[in-house]
Design a protein that fits this description.
40% helix; 14 helices; 7-stranded mixed β-sheet; 13 strands; 4-stranded antiparallel β-sheet
C-alpha cells in the first residue's frame, strides 16, 4: 500500500511538473541508503567522514547541540521536501477513495511507520502512538491515567518542563500529590538514584516518572532496575526518553516500563515535530485519550486511539521513516559506541584541565554522549559564545554554575573534540589568575 501510494504520487507529480523521466530521477543515493558495499567503509574513520557528508551543515562547523534539536541528513530532508512538493502539485488528483494515495495524516493508523519504530525500540506497533514530541507524550500519560485525590506521583527535581507540568496540572486539578526527589549533582552511583525513588515511596504512591537521561545535567537513570522495583510494588512507570531515542540503544521490553515517550527530532535526526509515545499493551486500556476524533474509542488498534489529532503533515512522516532507516542502516549499538566514545575523549581531555569541571556524571554506568562542563573564570554564556566565535564549536549554555552542554553525535569527529579542548586550554590560560 505504501509503495503504491508513493509511486502514484511521484509519477503524477513528475508529469505535472513537466519533468521527463530522467529529470524526475531521485537525487543520488546516499552512501548509507544502500548503494555502496560495506567494504568501502572498512576503516572506521573514513566511514564516519563519509557519513558527515550526508549533512548540510558546513564542514567547518562543529554542531554539539543535538540535545536541543538534531540536524537531519539529506535523505530525510529529501523525503520531506519531495513528498511535500508532490502533495501540493497533485492535490487535485486526490479523489479521497480508500485505495488512492493519501495526502495527509491524522486519520490513518500509519502502521508501516509504527512498525518501523516498534523494531527500533523492541515493542509492537499497537503499543506506539505517533506524537509531535515528548511533551505531548508526557501530557497524554499524565492526563489520561486515572488517579484519585491523595494519590502520589514521584518525579525528580531534574525534570524538563516537558516531563513535569502535565503532572503539576493533574495535582492542581485533581488533588494528586507530586513529590520531587532531589538528585545529587553529580550522582556517584546508580544505587543512589534508585534509593531516591524507593525511599520516597509510600502506600499512596501510584506513579514513578523517571527521566531516562536528564536534560540539564545528562544524568542517566538506571531505568531497568527502577522499573523492576516499581513492578514489585504495583507502581506505574513512565519514562521521559526525550534525550535517548537515537542516542543510546533502546529495548523497551528489557527495560520493562509501562510508558515511555521521546522526541526523535533530537538524536534520531527525524524532522522537527516528530515524536512517539509507547504504552505497554497490558496498560493501554487504562489510559484515556486527551485529544480525540473519530477513533477515540477504538480499543482494537492499541495506541491509535492516542493519535487522533486531526489533519497533519504526511510529508513529515515520510522524513520520520527515512530517519529510522538511516539510523538502522548504521545500527543503534554502533551509533552508541561511537558517540559515547567521542564523549569519553572529551571527558578525558577535560579532566586534564585544572580549571574545567565536569557536572554530568562520570560513573561508567551513568555516562552518555552528553557532557556538561564549566570553566573557572568564564560564565556559561561566555563559554558558549567564545567556543563559537573562536572555533565554530556550537554547544549550549546551561546556566551558571553548570557551564555548557556538549552532545557528541554521529556528525561529530575526534578532530572537533580536540578543537574544543584546545580552545578550552587557551581560555583557561587567559583567565588563569581568577
Ligand atoms: C529530558 C527532556 N524531556 C522533555 C523534553 C521536551 O522535548 P520536546 O520539546 O521535544 O517535547 C526535553 C527537551 O529538551 C528533554 O530534554
Amino acid at each position: 500500500m505504501m509503495n503504491r501510494r508513493h509511486f502514484l504520487g511521484s509519477a503524477v507529480a513528475a508529469a505535472l511538473l513537466g519533468r521527463n523521466k530522467s529529470a524526475a530521477a531521485p537525487t543520488p543515493a546516499s552512501p548509507f541508503g544502500g548503494s555502496l558495499p560495506p567494504a568501502v567503509f572498512q576503516d572506521d574513520e573514513s566511514y564516519w567522514r563519509a557519513l558527515r557528508r550526508e549533512f548540510l551543515m558546513p564542514s567547518d562547523e562543529a554542531f554539539f547541540n543535538t540535545g536541543t534539536l538534531g540536524s537531519s541528513p539529506r535523505v530525510v530532508l529529501d523525503a520531506v521536501v519531495n513528498h511535500m512538493t508532490q502533495v501540493d502539485a497533485t492535490i487535485a488528483h486526490w479523489d479521497y477513495k480508500p485505495d488512492h494515495p493519501d495526502y495527509f495524516t491524522g486519520y490513518r493508523p500509519e502502521l508501516e511507520l509504527r512498525e518501523k519504530l516498534a523494531r527500533l525500540i523492541n515493542a509492537t506497533a499497537a503499543e506506539i502512538a505517533l506524537t509531535q514530541n515528548a511533551t505531548v507524550g508526557m501530557n497524554y500519560v499524565a492526563n489520561g491515567i486515572r488517579l484519585q485525590p491523595g494519590d502520589e506521583v514521584i518525579l525528580t527535581n531534574q525534570e524538563h518542563p516537558g516531563g513535569r507540568h502535565g503532572w503539576d496540572l493533574k495535582a492542581k486539578r485533581y488533588g494528586v500529590f507530586v513529590k520531587n526527589v532531589t538528585v545529587p549533582v553529580p550522582p556517584e552511583s546508580p544505587q543512589q538514584l534508585i534509593d531516591l525513588y524507593v525511599n520516597a515511596t509510600t502506600p499512596q504512591t501510584r506513579v514513578w516518572g523517571i527521566p531516562h537521561l536528564t536534560s540539564q545535567l545528562a544524568i542517566l537513570f538506571p531505568v531497568k532496575e527502577l522499573c523492576r522495583l516499581a513492578r514489585e510494588r504495583g507502581i506505574f512507570t513512565v519514562i521521559d526518553g526525550a534525550q535517548v531515542c537515537g542516542h543510546l540503544a533502546l529495548d523497551l521490553r528489557e527495560i520493562g516500563c509501562d510508558a515511555y515517550y521521546s522526541s526523535p527530532h533530537k538524536w534520531l535526526l527525524a524532522p522537527k515535530g516528530c515524536g512517539w509515545l509507547y504504552i505497554r499493551a497490558e496498560r493501554l486500556p487504562e489510559i484515556w485519550a486527551t485529544i480525540v476524533s473519530s477513533n477515540w474509542d477504538n480499543y482494537h488498534d492499541g495506541a491509535f486511539r492516542l493519535m487522533q489529532i486531526g489533519s497533519g503533515n504526511l510529508s513529515l512522516l515520510k522524513g520520520y521513516e527515512a530517519a529510522i532507516d538511516f539510523h538502522q542502516r548504521i545500527g543503534s549499538a554502533r551509533v552508541e559506541q561511537r558517540i559515547v566514545g567521542l564523549a569519553n575523549r572529551l571527558r578525558e581531555g577535560l579532566r586534564q584541565i585544572p580549571q574545567a569541571r565536569i557536572w554530568s556524571p562520570q560513573h561508567a554506568e551513568l555516562v552518555s554522549a552528553t557532557t556538561v562542563w564549566s570553566l573557572g573564570g568564564w560564565s556559561a554564556t561566555e563559554l558558549m559564545d567564545q567556543l563559537w566565535e573562536r572555533s565554530k564549536v556550537r554547544c549550549r549554555a546551561m546556566g551558571d554554575p553548570y557551564g555548557v552542554r556538549q552532545c557528541c553525535h554521529i556528525y561529530n569527529a575526534p578532530e572537533e573534540v580536540e578543537r574544543t579542548l584546545q580552545t578550552i586550554r587557551r581560555m583557561a590560560w587567559e583567565r588563569r589568575e581568577r
